[in-house]
Amino acid sequence: MKENKNVTIGGASIAPNSRKQVHIKLPRLYDYTEMTIPVKVMRGKKEGPRLFVSAAIHGDEINGVEVIKRLLHHPDLKSTQDICGTLVLVPIVNVFGYNNKSRYLPDRRDLNRCFPGHYQGPLASQLAYTFMEEIVKKCTHGIDLHTGAVRRTNIPQIRACLDQGETQELAQAFNAPVIINAQLRDGSLREAARELNIPMLLFEGGEALRFDDYAIDTALRGILNVMREIGMIKTTHEKEEGTKPIFIARTSHWVRAPQSGSLQSFVKVGDTVKKKQILGVISDPFGYHATRVESPLNGMIIGATTLPLINTGDASFHIATFEDLKEHEQFNDQRYGPISKVT
Environment class of residue 276 by beta-carbon count within 10 Å: exposed (0-12), middle (13-18) or buried (19+)? Predict the structure, then answer.
């Protein structure tokens, strides 16, 4: 067995078989208020994988904050002696946006387009650099928790590069309802982790500035599943009977509003839809000039707007496509109730 040495994060040394709360310093605000990233580190007695779980890279995506809170107090993590390796929990990465209930930083930059960052760059770049140096580069695996944007909701899903063997195995072990083979975006945390050969999953579920218990519970179970998969904790129970199947989406497509008005939606996230099926109707305030919104393909609604007031071109329904639609229809009936029928 390898010698289990101390780990240093944010200038604090964390010994094996211990847990410590750390505050990583960030640039001050212009009124000279100090800002820090709160981190909780749990280290097992034995050496093993080092997994980071992060949330609120977008400051208004708060579901992940609650996920990490519940994970920290989960019975399977009651004692550090139950852990093999190191668990690094970062509930609020973008502390600037979180305190402003905003997706962005004060400079209006999207943190998830600024990785790996630079120590002499703009505020977002400095924050990205600090997170990479203090957290990501000191870990072997990662899970980043997200939600839909403001006024959009997502079904719980994993987004990952499935061409990387271990990443695909972790995605399937997570056991979310849907896995999306998502391409990397420039400046994203996933791209920066990929450059370091760190297997990483991105979880999406619920919507911004709202707690969604189903999404939170799915994420919590998924993180524990991944920890079991990589040998950080032991499996304490057999796989539950009737565990929902996983569906892998190869592509996804946003359906955009063909006109402005108010949207009456006929489907919800989790519904299976057929090509040319009517997803909703947009009309003016008197109910005239009604235009149908049709699905351009067969698939599943994995995301949708929660605001019925629509402008032309607004993203309204996010549809993922699967290899076996009939198999998914059976899953839909079991998990979400009957498929919506539109006549």
Answer: exposed
Q: What angle do CA 56, 272, 148 make, to 5 degrees?
A: 15
| Average pLDDT score, the chain | 91
Determine how many CB atoms are found less than 10 A away from the CB of residue 80.
Answer: 17
List, in sequence order, every residue forming a beta bridge with 61; answer none if it has no partner: none
What phi and psi, each to the nearest 5 degrees, are found at residue 325?
-70, -40
> Helix, strand, or coil here: 283?
strand
Instruction: Compute the C-alpha angle 166/172/174, nearest 5°.
Output: 100
| Bridge partner residues of 200 (DSSP) | 142
**Stretch 224-243: mean pLDDT:** 77
Percent of the chain with pLDDT over 90: 83
CB neighbours of 289 closer than 8 A, spacing ≥ 6? 259, 261, 283
Domains along the sequence of the chain with CATH = 7-229 (3.40.630.10), 251-336 (2.40.50.100)
Query: Which residues does 54 contact at the CB level (< 8 Å), separation at least 6?
Result: 64, 90, 93, 131, 135, 142, 143, 144, 145, 189
pLDDT in tens, 13-25: 999 999 999 999 9
pTM over 0.85: yes
> CB 107: neighbour CB atoms within 10 A?
11
Q: How far apart are CA 7 and CA 302, in angstroms?
A: 39
